[in-house]
Amino acid sequence: MDVFCENKAFDLAQARQILTQACSLGFPVKIHADEFDNLGGASLAVELGAASADHLVKTSDADIAALGQSDTVAVSLPCTPFGLAESEYTPAQKILDAGGILALATDLNPGTTWNESMQFVIALSCRMLKLTPAQAIAASTINSAHAIRRADRIGSLEPGKQADLLILSVPDYRHLGYRYGTNLVKQVVKRGRVYSVDVGYYRTA
After folding, report:
1. Counting C-beta atoms within 10 Å of the first and last residue's C-beta, which end of the chain has fewer, N or C?
2. Which residues pair with 187 in a beta bridge?
3. Distance CA 202, CA 205 (A)
4. Is 204 part of a structural domain of the chain?
């Protein structure tokens, strides 16, 4: 269950009511909050043990401290302020300094950010969130898996995990933070099957 806690959407009391009921029914919960106003949604997410709190542009220092002491993942959606021509982005360094788990996602939607490229998300986060390429890649992979509570199966290359990976046409991983506007993916491996982007076939690994 996911609630958008924001002025002109669900206020904090409404978000609490919905998410508390969802928790009582056994649903994992998430919240979108602090995109335009700080209503306390991030702290509510921590209180309820939410998998993630997303957006987090206007998040207060108190909310950041709460996130840093929890397992709730702070998901930055940098393409949303970019798409809206806003000047403020998630205070990613504050979240990291507080010990928070930072993830990245596209927030793909036709209303505010029609971006389908995680490659662009990584490049944008290196510029506007001041992440290193390594931080941005970790936020896009293993930390994003934590945000949907599947880090035990996906998000990193480890024995026993699902074989999901990308093979890129680049000489160095740092190109992901440097280049944008073109698709660098050469092959996709999904559940051990290899899909070639160039010729559109797959084979079993």
Report:
1. C
2. 167, 196
3. 9
4. no
Domain residues for the domain of 11 are 2-157
- In this prediction, residue 8 carries a pLDDT of 94
Number of domains in the chain: 1
Tens of pLDDT along 60-91?
999 999 999 999 999 999 999 999 999 999 99
Above 70 in pLDDT, residue 120? yes
Say how many CA atoms lie within 13 Å of 50 toward its Cβ: 30
192 in a domain, yes or no? no
Q: Which amino acid is at 29?
A: V
Contacts of 55-62 with CB under 8 Å at 24 or more apart are 55/80, 55/90, 55/107, 56/90, 56/91, 56/95, 57/81, 57/86, 57/88, 57/89, 57/90, 58/34, 58/88, 59/33, 59/34, 59/90, 59/91, 59/95, 61/94
Judged by DSSP in three states, 146 sits in helix
